[in-house]
Every structure is written in C-alpha cells, then in structure tokens.
Amino acid sequence: MHYFEKVFDGQVLKWCVNGAELGGGKPTLLCLVSNETEAESCLSKLEPHCGEAQVTALILPGGILPETAVQSLVFEWQTTGIIDKCKLSLTASQSCADAAWQLISHLSHCFSAAAILGGHADPYEVRAAKFMPLKVYTFAGEGNVLADGKVLADAEKLVMSLRVTGSETVERTEINPENAWENVFADGEIVRWLLKQDRRTQLEVTWIKPGFWRIDDYFTATCYLIEGRDKALLIDTGMGEGDLLDTVKKLTRLPVEVAITHPHRDHMFRIDRFEKVYLHKNDVEKIREDENCFAAALSDGGKYPQLVPIDEGSVIDLGGGVTVDVLNLGGHTENSVVFACAHYKALFTGDAIGSGYIVLMICPEKDMYKVLESYKKNLECFLPHAEALRDYAWFGGHSIQENGCDEQHQQDYLAGRSVYYNPLRLEIVQDMVVLCEKLITGEISKADVMSTDEHYCNYGSAGMYFRFI
Ligand SMILES: [Zn+2]
Ligand SMILES: [Zn+2]
Q1: How far is the CA of 317 from the centre of ligand 1 (A)?
Q2: Locate the Metallo-beta-lactamase domain: which residues (predicted)?
Q3: Residue 379: how many CB atoms within 10 A of its CB?
C-alpha cells in the first residue's frame, strides 16, 4: 500500500487511496482510521463496492482528530478538483467514530453524507449536521462520558439530539458490536448510498420567525420565503439542484410567487419551476429582446414563466397588510433591487451590497469608473431608506458571508474559531459610499486595486472586488 503524506498546520497527515492517487473529480469516500492495519483492512472492504468512485483512508493516530489540519487537507482536495467537492462522504473505523462526529459537527458543509458506528460527541454541536444524510449504527448499553468537564453523548443520544431539532435525514440502526464494521459494510449497500449523496441537491431550511424562512443551498446562495395572508413570496431561487419548489410547498400552503433581486444564475436558477416571477423591468425587457440572455436561469428546455416587471416604488402585496417594497440599488448588476418588508421588519439585499464581505463589481475594465459613478449615485439614493431601515434585520444573498468569503474558514463559527463577523447593516452602505468616492477621486488608485489578487479594495466595513469581463 502506498501512503501519501503532507504537513498541514504543523501536523503530518498520512492517507492511502484505492488506485494510484486521488484525481479526476470523482465521488469520494473518506474513511477515518487510527493506524495502517485499519487503513488496509478498511480499504480492502470498501473498495470492491466503490465502482468508478474513489475511497481514501486517513490515519488519525489514537483516533484523535487534528481538526484544522484535516480541514486544510479536505479543502485542498475540494478546491483542486481532484475529488467531486459535492460528493465527499465520510465514514470511520470504530476507533475513529468520535473524530467523524466532530468533523460533521464542525465542517458540516464539507460532506455530502456520513455513516458512523458508535462514538461520542457534543450533542449540541452535532446539530449543525441536521440536514446531512446520516446513517448511525448504535450499540446497546452505551452511555454518556464526561471529558474535560464536558458531556459527550453516545451515538443513540446524538441521533435524538438531531431528531429534536427536526432532522429528517438521520437514520439509526442498532447493531451487535461483534464484527460491527465488517457487517455494516459487507454487502456494499452503505458504500453505494454514501457515494450517491450529493450536496448539490441538499437544501437547508432555517426558521426565522412565524411565516418567514431562510433556505441555503450548496453554493451558499440564500433564498427567503415570507408569507402574507393570501400568498407567499420566495425571494430568489438560489442555485441548488434540489427540489426547491417541493421544499417551499412543504413550508407554506399559500400560492408562491417569486421575486428576484438580480438575474445571476445563483439567484434565479430554475425559475421556470415557478409560475410568476417579479424582476426589474429592464431585465424583463432584456429577456423580451433576447430569450437567451439569462438562459442559465432555466432548467434544460425550460421556458420563462410569467414575468412581472418591477421598479423603484413597486409594491408586492401578499395580503393581510403584508407588503414588500421594491428599492433600486444597481451596481453589482445594473438593475439590482432590494426588497423591504415592514411586516417582518426585514430588508433583503441580494448581492447589492455584498453579504457582509465584499460587493462584486462585474464590468469591462474600461467601464470601471462609469460603473462606480452609477453605483455611488444609486447608493446615495438608497441611503435615506437604509437609515430609516437601520433597525430592520438585513438579509443578504449569501448568508454565510457574514463570516467572510474565505471558503476554507466559512464554517469556523461552528467550532468556535471564527475570526470574522461583518453583518449587513447601515454602516456598510455608508462606508460603501465613501469607498466609491475614494476610488472615483483617485485617493484609492486603480493601480492599488489592480495590484491585489482579486482587484480588491476596502474602506471600513465595505469591500469591493472587480471582475473585469
Ligand atoms: Zn450576483
Ligand atoms: Zn450571488
């Protein structure tokens, strides 16, 4: 067996793979093991059921998880494309079950599914994995343990902890401890199930308050559903490949209409699944002139639904006094809008001012200053509204970016390691105006912007990236 070794975060990590090495962007099963003997035994049992997929055994001596090092390794696999980043599933030998629980608790978005036999973990932290497809095998007579004054619950109690938060994706099976691992994986059914699970189709629903939900997809695009008396409004459709319509229908019995903040693929994917869509009038016009201009928003063969043009001052009436006001805030796209709802005291900003990290400006390089002038003017028009809405809750199009744009560290908050928190608020709008001003006057020069990797600049709480097309 050939082993690979690499140092991350001062820790040597060692793993082996079925086949020569990881590659080809295939579905991948990661199995945590505590030594070489386990690695070879696990690989030999998993490999026959893997088909075209790949399986790798990562050695964690003593079953102890060097969490930040493993996070770096997984991130490297996922960002270099050597595995299918949405199809990385997890299992562990019994000696590494605790490590597997810890990983899904702190890095729940890295894994498409997990199968864990026994083990102990923090029953509160594990709730971060409530949307993960999870098969848990429990042994009779286990119990909680205390470690460093902290309670670590046994696997059956961890399942209960997930169930009381509403998890519908966790399944428990009680098994005999004798040859448990071999028996669970013997017929290959679990391996095939693990490798089939796909983050692209998984949606996470968060209840905000009565009649108001947030839905996040694998791409970290966020949509919101709010109910009035007569109908419900879905703000953006994200980029997930799961059945969003079905999810929304489970949340509300009202007819659902869709309002789009801006026509990027990660905000209006598959709008053909819905019947009526509100979109800025200029973007509706663009579609009427050229059906293909936002074609990435449609399913294969899909047709645009009824498009209702909106503009500054438009009001979407959901009945019972629940209305949504449309405010223009072009910049990220020329016709981006934000939605304000007094009933829920909520402001939905899409990507118009970023989601707590940067606003992305996309334009030909020659138009940089024209776009900045226009964005500044739009921000100044928006500012009095923003001041009046200061105490609303502000919701962006990519919720997790309140915790930064660095994908590797976006989930650090789950492990209590976050070093960034910049929620959407009035201050970002105010700072964004100053940032535009500094760019336009040359106080921040184009050369300064061009000298950074992502064409980045910032002022106070506001940041900007330029993507030149
Ligand atoms: Zn966008
Ligand atoms: Zn976006």
Answers
A1: 25
A2: 220-398
A3: 25
